[in-house]
Structures are given as C-alpha cells and as structure tokens.
Amino acid sequence: RGDVDVTPLGAERCVGDGTRSGFAYLGGVVRNKRVPLLIRAAQLADVPLHLALIYYSAETATDLQEVFRLVGPKVTIARVGLHTRKILLSSVLGAVTLSQADSQWLPGTEARACGGIAIAADIPSIRAANGDGILYVKDVDEMASTMKRLSHDAEAYETERIRQQQLYLQSGRDSNAVGERLANWVLKMGAQP
Questions:
Q1: Checking DSSP bridges between strand 117-121 and strand 94-97, what pairing results, if any?
Q2: Is the pLDDT of residue 45 over 60?
Q3: pTM, two decimal places
C-alpha cells in the first residue's frame, strides 16, 4: 500500500536533527494501558508527553474521553500511522508505557531503533521480550522520577541511551530479539496488498 512506510527499522532510517525532548506513548487507549497514569507521571515530572494513538474504537470511547480531559499544556495527542512513528520517535528522548497488558511492546523497540530509549512498567511479557535492554519502573512515582531525571540530566540520559543502544544492537544475536523481529515482520506485513 502506498500510504504505509515499510522502511526497515534502524537508526540510519530514522529522521530528525538530533534534537530530542519529552517522551512519547504509542498505543491504544484502553483501561489496561493505563494512559491516565502515564499522563500523571509526565505531569509530576513536568516533562512533555506526546500521546500517539495508534488505535481506538467505539468500545474505548469512555477511556478516550478520560484521556482528553487530562490533556494539558505539556501533553499533546494525535493519531499516528506507521509512516509517522519514526518521525515522532526521532524527536523524543524515548518511548514510555505503564501498560499492564502488552506483549512485546514494539514502540520500545522502535524508540531504540531510532536512537532513543525505552521505559516501561516491569511486567513479565515486556521483560521477556526486552530483557535488560530497557529501563523498568514499578509505579507512577518511579516513572515520573525517571522521566524527570533523564530529561534534566544530559549525562545520565546519554549514559542510559548508550547502554540501551549497545544492548539493542546485540539483540539480533540473542533470545531477546523477539521485539525487533516482530516489529520488522509487522512493517513487512503492512506492505502486503
């Protein structure tokens, strides 16, 4: 399909001028994704959060209304497709989620592919897919403090970014490559008629 960018993920394929700020959530708005809690964490940290909604439906209308009520000066919201994900992920410090119901959490893999970092709730499925390759948090307060620290301390951010990039590049050779393989498969399938 002509409307979907199916370029394989990789830092050399991402765009941006290298300037990064804030964090991004890419995903759906359903209760178990805990988007309102993520917004609260960004507000506590006083950092920008870009909500990139990939999917929503009539069943999620109540959850979506709750998210819209929480959107404020440092929280933006938009619907994005595969072709705009890399642009967003190349302009933020990293991808974040407090979801309690993700399998591999592909946006974390995509963020690392675009040179950023990933911070997620510590749940078994995300840990199984990403191993030690991302940062894990246990709750809203820890997410807030992690986002604040990494957005205000350039040295701490760069140290974490390098750590995650090294593990991301190694992931093609070990069992934690599930997320990357699946992300590339999803992009490839998007090209099918």
A1: parallel
A2: yes
A3: 0.76
